[in-house]
Amino acid sequence: MGSLLAGVAHELNNPLAIVMGRASLLEEKCEGTPELQGDARRIREAAERCGRIVRTFLNMARAKPAERRNVQLNDLARAAADMLAYTFRSHGIELQLELAADLPEVSADADQIGQVVLNLLVNAQQALASAPAEGVRRVKLASGIEARRSNREPRVWLRVADSGPGVPPALHEKIFEPFFTTKPEGIGTGLGGPSRARWCVITAASSAWRSAPPARSSA
Asked: What InterPro entries does this protein map onto (predicted)?
């Protein structure tokens, strides 16, 4: 798996560099046209995020430790939601943010955790887009902090939940396996959702778990 990830990362680097360079030039040429310049900036920022994803793949292949710093989970959540806002609107899906005020910072790799949030939101959107349109289609992105317990310090949490069909109980044990996916061929790889989330979150010295009843998303 390490060799595969390293190979994929290498093949993506060159086209990503071209996209980032052209987007930067386009951003400069659109000066004076705020709407077009904003579109070009979002293309560049998305390409830069893809570049960070590629580096994360390489880190996975090389088992490189996370680059920790103090990060605000709410900022990562808002950035992911902003990046996918148009996609959600175009599919008629409501994206609801319930982020706790005054959330303390946590020590984590911002790129890794941000990508986990983005992947979970994409999974939720794809699950709802392919499900029968019955009732309100909604994805909720929420954050908060646990009450203090006698046996441990309070923990900050971030949760993605959707109103989709959920993952069948028979598949619960497989959703963290690399390359496992329930999506059609050409859409899911099994590397972007729970399997990668597990790697990133464990690297951040935390934990990932399933909720019951069936988790509200598709792998």
From this structure: HATPase_C_sf (IPR036890), HATPase_dom (IPR003594), His_kinase_dom (IPR005467), HisK_dim/P_dom (IPR003661), HisK_dim/P_sf (IPR036097)
Burial of 69 (0-12, 13-18, 19+ CB in 10 A): exposed
Flag whether the pTM goes above 0.70.
no
The domain boundary residue, chosen from 42, 62, 82? 62
Cα 173 to chain centroid, rounded: 21
Residues 57 and 74 in one domain: no
Same domain, 15 and 52: yes
- Kindly give the confidence (pLDDT) of every residue in the chain, 219 residues in length, as a single tens digit, with 9 standing for 90 and above: 556 666 777 778 778 888 988 999 999 999 888 889 989 988 988 888 788 777 766 666 665 666 788 999 999 999 888 888 888 988 889 999 999 998 999 888 887 788 888 888 888 888 888 776 677 889 999 999 887 777 777 788 999 998 877 777 777 777 766 666 666 655 554 444 444 444 445 444 444 444 444 444 444
Q: Is residue 213 reached through a cis peptide bond, with omega within 30 degrees of 0 on the bond before it?
A: yes
